[in-house]
Specification:
CATH architecture: Roll
CATH superfamily: Methylpurine-DNA glycosylase (MPG)
Helix content: 10-25%
Structural class: mainly beta
Order of helices and strands: HHEEEEEEHEEE
Low-confidence stretches: none
Distance between the termini: 31 Å
Number of domains: 1
CATH topology: 3-methyladenine DNA Glycosylase, Chain A
DNA sequence: ACACTGATGAAT
DNA sequence: TTCATCAGTGTT
């Protein structure tokens, strides 16, 4: 076996890291989704945001465990999707240990900026809710060398959360 | 600056 | 069962 990088599906244990560790670790990794026509899309992740626990007032789980947020409590490795503004499907990866609601929002991939556009490009819809990333046949993430040079900023459009959450540098991008 | 769009959770 | 709100995008 040579020294070249073997493409491999990320395992459940990888997603079980704390969201503040996992979010930047997902930069550069390959988001892979099977299209309805059978083709496979692979895009490097370029922009993410971390949503961390019930105490984080910007996180949907701040309202507790509901039918919508229940998957965030299931432990890292599941897909969390939701429809926003009646139009755009947001793609998230659940992170952390079971019982601790956390998720990483995929805000951008190579050549596709904006979480709504990512959802559209990847044909994300309600049916992806709860998909297990480590063994799904239609959505997963493949490993790639870590990105060491990335930037951070406050999260986008969460002013309603107020301090200190609105100031957290929990947006990570290349 | 604003229309679009509908699921969601809180208030009635 | 009504109501305000929303982790956004495209057009004016």
């Amino acid at each position: 076996m040579g020294a070249f990088f073997m493409s491999a599906k990320l395992k459940q244990a990888f997603y079980r890291q704390d969201v503040l560790t996992l979010a930047p670790a997902l930069l550069g990794k390959l988001l892979c989704v099977k299209m309805t026509n059978g083709s496979l899309q692979k895009y490097a992740i370029t922009e993410v945001e971390a949503y961390r626990g019930e105490e984080d007032l910007a996180c949907h789980a701040a309202k507790g465990k509901t039918e919508r947020t229940r998957i965030m409590y299931a432990g890292g490795g599941f897909v969390y999707v939701y429809l926003i503004y009646g139009m755009h499907w947001m793609l998230n990866m659940v992170s952390g240990e079971e019982g601790v609601p956390q998720a990483v929002l995929i805000r951008g991939v190579e050549g596709v900026n904006g979480p709504g556009r990512v959802g559209k490009r990847m044909q994300i819809d309600r049916s992806f809710y709860g998909e297990a990333l480590w063994h799904s046949q239609r959505i997963w993430i493949e490993d790639a060398p870590p990105v060491v040079a990335y930037q951070t900023s406050p999260r986008i459009n969460i002013a309603y959360a107020g301090a200190p959450w609105v100031h957290k540098q929990w947006r990570f991008f290349i």
